[in-house]
UniProtKB/TrEMBL annotation:
It is an enzyme of class 2 (transferase). This is Polypeptide N-acetylgalactosaminyltransferase. It comes from Corvus brachyrhynchos. Gene3D superfamilies: 2.80.10.50, Spore Coat Polysaccharide Biosynthesis Protein SpsA, Chain A. Residues 325-454 form the Ricin B lectin domain.
Length: 458
């Protein structure tokens, strides 16, 4: 289908922006050659290489000499005086660009012939579209290209991005060449009208390194009058690197950046991000910096609310508004261990030394359900399981809540620093110390043991 499509002659010109830090020179040049070879010359305004303060000598004079000789006047090199991180480095690339359209890419990609025309055509029709070429994979060891299935890009409540199934109306149309509506972007490549990108506040310069900015852009574009789509007819392959230059604690940066997104864009749903990272709502212990400018931007653009976005753009995202308490659950008779989901296949909760990560994220709901494990993502993937007393076993089961027939066997009475009592059986969740043999999590007649959960929502 893609080969049959025809595009206009007067498409806008694109500035292609690559960001690199300590990348192999050969890989950067491969990306540049690929861009030049597979983008029609009349459409390619320029290529901008942003060096985010690399240390490697070959990325200094040798890189500039090569591109100036091979592509005189076509390639600009922008050097950051200190390492800014991917987000702010992309903003520097945008400032240097002069094309009507800007394309942002990692510096380890390969363009497929015919990638540019469908993208530029969609932006020409509507300048408020952010376009994502479909991503294929290049294997790092042998540079073999592996085609990925057509997909949209979603994310979890921690704001980690992931591939998701295209929306139902795309499947129903039965035409695999059609654009795919997407809630957000994976982040390694996106194309946007240069002026429109400036109008909606670019990426958030208050974020550090990377992680979360790709979700912020998706939410913001949809809420503030634009749209985001993946184009199956435009394909750009990306090397999945094993060693990443910014990788010193990317989890920390993503967490901090995610909280900025939550505070600016998510309204009453911002608590989902705090719950997902198992952080208290008050004083989470992370300085997210000043978000007043981003809030003012949202106001000035007269953007919609986050509820609209969940209903219309990301309806498959699971919602957890019924949460009243979350975090690690500890028993007064065993202070150093926490309730834990244990090995998935065993379907029973266990006690395990406390670490506060996903397997120990307990969540107590208004209905009296006690869920255990990381928050779920979309309705097409399994949800967090819940604790059940089936009345027979002395061990608590961990099951898919929707499949448990007896409502009462999955409901628990619990108040902070009180017992956890099953409404169906009257038994309590308790710990049994077996000396050298360890500690068991069991169900039995209540003996007055007390549990505390890390965070209660007032």
């Amino acid at each position: 289908r893609c080969k049959e499509l025809k595009y206009g002659k007067d498409l806008p010109q694109i500035s292609i922006i690559f960001i690199f830090v300590n990348e192999a020179l050969s890989v950067i040049l491969r990306s540049v050659h690929s861009a030049v070879n597979h983008t029609p010359a009349p459409l390619l305004k320029e290529i901008i290489l942003v060096d985010d303060n690399s240390d490697e000598e070959e990325l200094k004079a040798p890189l500039e000499e090569y591109v100036n000789k091979r592509y005189p006047g076509l390639v600009k090199v922008v050097r950051n005086q200190k390492r800014e991180g991917l987000i702010r480095a992309r903003i520097e690339g945008w400032k240097a660009a002069t094309g009507q359209v800007t394309g942002f890419f990692d510096a380890h990609v390969e363009f497929t012939a015919g990638w540019a025309e469908p993208v530029l055509s969609r932006i020409q029709e509507n300048r408020k579209r952010v376009i994502l070429p479909s991503i294929d994979n290049i294997k790092q060891d042998n540079f073999e290209v592996q085609r990925y299935e057509n997909s949209a890009h979603g994310y979890s409540w921690e704001l980690w991005c992931m591939y998701i199934s295209p929306p139902k109306d795309w499947w129903d149309a039965g035409d695999p060449s059609l654009p795919i509506r997407t809630p957000a972007m994976i982040g390694c490549s996106f194309v946007v009208n240069r002026k429109f990108f400036g109008e909606i506040g670019l990426l958030d310069p208050g974020m550090d390194v990377y992680g979360g900015e790709n979700i912020e852009l998706g939410i913001k574009v949809w809420l503030c009058g634009g749209s985001m789509e993946v184009l199956p007819c435009s394909r750009v392959a990306h090397i999945e690197r094993k060693k990443k230059p910014y990788n010193n604690n990317i989890g920390f940066y993503t967490k901090r950046n995610a909280l900025r997104v939550a505070e600016v864009w998510m309204d009453d749903y911002k608590w989902h991000v705090y719950i997902a990272w198992n952080l208290p709502l008050e004083n989470p212990g992370i300085d997210i910096g000043d978000v007043s400018e981003r809030k003012a931007l949202r106001k000035s653009l007269k953007c919609k609310n986050f509820q609209w976005y969940l209903d219309h753009v990301y309806p498959e995202m699971r919602r957890y508004n019924n949460t009243i308490a979350y975090g690690e659950l500890r028993n007064n008779k065993a202070k150093d261990v926490c309730l834990d989901q244990g090995p998935q296949e065993n379907h029973t909760a266990i006690l395990y030394p406390c670490h506060g990560w996903g397997p120990q994220l307990a969540r107590y709901t208004r209905e009296g359900f006690l869920h255990l494990g990381a928050l779920g993502t979309t309705t097409l993937l399994p949800d967090t399981r819940c604790l059940v007393d089936n009345g027979k076993s002395r061990f608590p089961q961990l099951l898919d809540c929707d499949k448990v027939k007896s409502s009462l066997h999955k409901r628990w009475n619990f108040i902070q620093n009180g017992a956890i009592l099953n409404k169906g059986t009257g038994r309590c969740l308790e710990v049994e110390n077996r000396g050298m043999a360890g500690i068991d999590l069991i169900l039995r007649s209540c003996t007055g043991q007390r549990w505390t959960i890390k965070n209660f929502i007032k």
